[in-house]
Amino acid sequence: MQAESLDQVKVSACRLEPVWVIHVELGPEDDERIRLVLCDEVRLAYGDYDQVSFETATGTQFFRGAQGTASGPMETATSRQVRVLSFSITKDRRLLDAAMRIIHRLHSYEEPVIYVQDAFASRSLPEKRQNENKWWMKSD
Predict the structure, then answer these.
(1) Is 118 helix (H, G, I), strand (E, B) or coil?
(2) How far apart are alpha carbons 50 and 33 in whole angstroms?
(3) In a domain, 129, yes or no
(4) How many other C-beta atoms are found inside a 10 Å radius of the C-beta of residue 30?
(5) Which of 25, 36, 40, 138 is 20 to 30 A (C-alpha) from 83?
(6) Domain span at 63
(7) What is the pTM of this model?
């Protein structure tokens, strides 16, 4: 069965907007600079909010250097503790180019691990914001 494109799908709770989702693996040397510069220069907007991103807890990345890498060929794979920074941007090639330039400029790796995926993000409908389950509607 072929997957249905969400371009024409309507849902009643919200609207769907095409975005690119970007995941960047950050090494131990990578501090919050990448996220902060992305917030300043790309905005990392999500609907009416900006500076929106997600960072995972630390996990383990495995790799082995090949011929031509800064480390040179490695006999066996090695591992490092990394975390993943995730964010989305509207499908604007200038924003994508800016984000990739920032990441490559500031990242500690010779070959930053970056994934860019097509996706759809939800956007609230103004009339749906009056909902007793929302944190700003609770009186306690």
Answers:
(1) strand
(2) 17
(3) no
(4) 20
(5) 40
(6) 16-70+77-124
(7) 0.87
Contact 10, 120 (CB under 8 A): no
Q: Mind giving me the DSSP string for 27-64? A: -TT--THHHHHHHHHT---BTTB-S--EEPPPEEEEE-
- Residue labelled with tokens 């975005």: 19
Task: Name which of 14, 32, 51 is nearest 125 in CA terms.
Answer: 14
CA atoms within 13 A on the CB side of 28: 6
- pLDDT tens across the length of the chain (140 residues): 666 777 777 888 888 999 999 999 999 999 999 999 999 999 999 999 999 999 999 999 999 999 999 889 999 999 999 999 999 999 999 999 999 999 999 999 999 999 999 999 999 887 767 777 777 777 76
CA 127 centroid distance within chain: 28
